[in-house]
Write a structure and sequence with these properties.
There is one protein chain. The chain is α+β, with helices and mostly antiparallel strands. Among the domains are: 82 residues, Ubiquitin-like (UB roll) (Roll), CATH 3.10.20.90; 107 residues, Pleckstrin-homology domain (PH domain)/Phosphotyrosine-binding domain (PTB) (PH-domain like, Roll), CATH 2.30.29; 107 residues, Pleckstrin-homology domain (PH domain)/Phosphotyrosine-binding domain (PTB) (PH-domain like, Roll). Helix content is 31%, strand content 23%. The strands form 4 sheets. It has a 7-stranded antiparallel beta sheet, with helices on one face. Strands 21-20-19-18-24-23-22 form a 7-stranded antiparallel beta sheet. The protein has a 5-stranded mixed beta sheet with strand order 2-1-5-3-4, covered by helices on one side. Helix 11 packs across helix 17, helix 11 runs antiparallel to helix 18 and helix 13 packs across helix 14.
Length: 679
């Protein structure tokens, strides 16, 4: 027994667990301490008692019951509220974690389990040479997306060790010993803008020779294609409810991994969460471009995003181009880069970048008084009941952000038949180049839902000009905006890829080509066509992209992905206040869309540009948003925690504040203000 005179009545026993691997030393230690002892002093007492000679600088206390770290070492135990029944574990803050990248490769590396996820992802991206870490986050696969795989692979084991890129000797985070992995603080890695492979001068910066070059290639270059069997084993969403399961497991960026139940050697997915790819540059972003390309490729193959047969063949052709180009590159050495090819890549980049409202630099063209307008004969298609459609030609005039149509050109000086305000509307392409069909579907918000209007254009050029104007008008921009011509060229480029012509050689000898067409299209089209038919059709589409370099093929693939109507939408099942049924909420980079769960039709769209404020009632887990013109909505999230949607909205608003003028600094404090919330 210890006498009270020796320790005083204000001391008490605290049982501490030490996470170490030394045999012969007990893991549970009991210390006599007082509440006015600060956490740093407790660490010192513990280390002195266990007498193990090792570096303890990465260790901190984890409070098991309260699921929190005691990182403020100057705080006293009383201030933290630590009492004798507290279970404190003295453990390393950096632990091993397995991450599955968008290209389905798994890397194993040491990550901070005590930093907020936002900071941890930043450190991971430095390690992997991925710029703009704010666009990515960590995703825990939900049970719903694992069920199918578990049934099929009940007796399967974890991937073999050789399938995992082990970066365990390259710890991320500040103040840790060891090499910097694939990242250098003083130099920016440079990649060949045509092939995407690391420049020879860059390789010498890395830690060791061949193995590091191999690691770079695994991350920056696409290697293996998938098989139908591999696709069959993976989760494929069939409905909007299935797609909502894909987004349920995003980790909270304002809390640490440990606080969210992640343990050492867990497997998480590293994914692009925000679909705003800022400042892409092939010289520095080979890894980033490749991982975006891979995320897009798998989303299309697994039918996470819908596309037409024509579009699927474009995606297949671009993948086939990458496959063919890589084979030719493997037998040749590229010592010099053709300037024209680099120019093509840069031209593709100028069309590729996605910007948010408010994220553009001020444009002097917006200040001119003579706003450009379009005027042309178009066909108006109005859906009627019993599947009948009324099609009639009118004289259309597009000015500012509105479309007016008249009976004919001569009556254009009078009152229009109808004037449509496109601000905040949904614009959906309805195109089949082979059938010479160039349609624009407009879903215009009205008081009781969405008003559907279809416009039919006569040719590609007319379609590109009107479609670009509609897209800008939906964002509240006019044709005077500098992005109008870029939008027109982007649409024409996409149409050109669809407008392929078949070469006689490709058509007659598809069996001579080393290609497995099932690797390039989703299972739906594998079932629809025979293998030879698919090969012939892919080669037919491939004729139009056969001259592209490796990087340009990937950039065009990303561009085509961005052109799909559903691009960038993350789905959640919600219940709106006052509603008796569940709906789907689509969250995009610039808007929220309420979607009918049964039909998949959009009901209402709300633009972030019109949003005044949003908040969360944490007691009832309800998100409330106020927009201009006294519009307000409120909903509870049923398929995920409401914090995820709250973070999505704040995250997209945060990303809209980025500028190339200060692109190397990131206001982490602002991110947490916009996304953190107060529970």
């Amino acid at each position: 027994m210890v006498s009270s005179t020796e320790y005083g009545s204000h001391t008490w026993e605290l049982s501490l667990t030490v996470d170490h691997q030394h045999e012969g030393v007990g893991k549970v230690q009991v210390l006599h301490i007082s509440g006015d002892l600060h956490v740093g002093g407790l660490m010192l007492k513990l280390v002195e008692k266990i007498e193990i000679a090792q570096d303890w600088s990465d260790y901190a206390f984890w409070w098991e019951q309260k699921k929190c770290w005691l990182l403020k070492t100057h705080w006293t135990l009383d201030k933290y509220g630590v009492q004798a029944d507290a279970k404190l574990i003295f453990t390393a803050q950096h632990k091993m974690l397995r991450l599955r990248l968008p290209n389905m490769k798994t890397v194993r590396l040491k990550v901070s389990f005590s930093s907020m996820v936002f900071r941890a992802v930043s450190d991971i991206c430095k390690m992997l040479n991925i710029r703009r870490s704010e666009e990515l986050s960590l995703l825990k696969q939900s049970e719903g997306t694992l069920k199918k795989k578990k049934k099929k692979d009940k007796n399967s084991k974890e991937p073999a060790t050789e399938d995992i890129l082990n970066l365990s000797n390259s710890p991320v985070g500040s103040g840790l010993p060891g090499n910097a992995g694939l990242y250098s603080k003083t130099m920016t890695p440079v990649y060949d803008p045509v092939s995407g492979s690391p420049a020879s001068s860059t390789i010498t910066w890395f830690s060791d020779g061949s193995s590091t070059e191999q690691n770079c290639n695994i991350l920056a270059l696409s290697h293996s294609t998938c098989s139908p069997e591999m696709l069959a084993e993976m989760y494929q969403p069939r409905t909007l409810a299935d797609k909502a399961k894909l987004n349920a497991g995003w980790l909270d960026s304002s809390r640490s991994l440990m606080e969210q139940g992640v343990v050492e050697e867990d497997l998480l997915l590293l994914r692009f969460k925000y679909y705003t790819f800022f400042d892409l540059n092939p010289k520095y972003d080979a890894v980033r471009i490749n991982q975006i390309y891979e995320q897009a490729r798998w989303a299309i193959l697994l039918e996470e995003i819908d596309c037409t047969e024509e579009e699927m063949l474009i995606f297949a052709a671009l993948q086939a181009q990458y496959h063919v180009s890589k084979l030719s590159l493997s037998s040749e050495t590229q010592d010099s880069i053709c300037e024209s090819e680099v120019d093509e890549v840069e031209a593709a980049l100028s069309n590729l970048e996605v910007t948010l409202e408010g994220g553009n630099k001020s444009n002097i063209l917006e200040d001119i008084t003579d706003i450009p307008k379009l005027a042309d004969n178009l066909k108006l298609v109005r859906p009627k009941k019993l599947a009948l459609k009324a099609i009639k030609t009118y004289w259309f005039v597009f000015r500012d952000t509105s479309i007016s149509y008249f009976k004919n050109k001569e009556s254009a000086q009078g009152e229009p038949v109808e004037k449509l305000n496109l601000k905040g509307c949904e614009v959906v392409p309805d195109v089949n180049v082979a059938a010479k069909k160039f349609g624009i579907k407009l879903l215009i918000p009205v008081a009781d839902g969405m008003n559907e209007v279809y416009l039919r254009c006569d040719n590609e050029d007319q379609y590109a000009r009107w479609m670009a104007a509609c897209v800008l008008a939906s964002k509240g921009k006019t044709m005077a905006d500098s992005s109008y011509q870029h939008e027109v060229q982007k649409i024409l480029s996409f149409l050109q890829m669809k407008n392929w012509t078949m070469s006689s050689q490709a058509a007659s000898e598809p069996e001579n080509v080393d290609m497995k067409p099932e690797c390039f299209v989703s299972p739906r089209y594998t079932k629809k066509f025979k293998s030879k038919q698919l090969t012939a059709r892919i080669l037919e589409a491939h004729q139009n992209v056969s001259q592209m370099s490796l990087v340009e093929a990937k950039l065009r693939f990303i561009q085509a992905w961005q052109s799909l109507p559903e691009f960038g939408l993350s789905y959640y099942i919600v219940r709106f206040k006052g509603s008796k049924k569940d709906d789907v909420l689509g969250v995009s980079y610039n808007r929220l869309i309420r979607i009918d769960m049964a039909t998949g039709d959009p009901i209402t769209t709300w633009r972030f540009a019109n949003m005044k404020q949003w908040n969360v009632n944490w007691e009832i887990r309800q998100v409330a948003i106020e927009f201009d013109q006294n519009v307000s909505i409120a909903f509870t999230c049923l398929s995920a925690d409401c914090k995820i949607i709250h973070e999505y909205i704040g995250g997209y608003i945060f990303l809209s504040t980025r500028s190339k003028d200060h692109n190397e600094t990131l206001d982490e404090e602002l991110f947490h203000k916009l996304t953190g919330g107060q529970e």
